[in-house]
Amino acid sequence: MQIIKRLLPGSEEMALALVVWLCTLPLIALVVAPLLGRQAAISIAIVVSVLVLGACWIRCLFIVTETYLRERKKQNG
Fold this sequence. Notes:
By secondary structure, the protein is an all-alpha fold. The chain is 92% helix and 0% strand.
């Protein structure tokens, strides 16, 4: 697990984003689908996934940058 954390910093955030998106799918299916139809529910699910993953990528960018700078500082002393 330490190897994954070292090679892919922010992987926990990506997993959390996936779980959050999966948890929103039943809500979308139960609320949006009956009101707006199946096509709208699918579209909203896709938009939510893009938003959640976009937020995750932004968060991961900061984590990777911070990790890189910390490692670089260690190497330069």
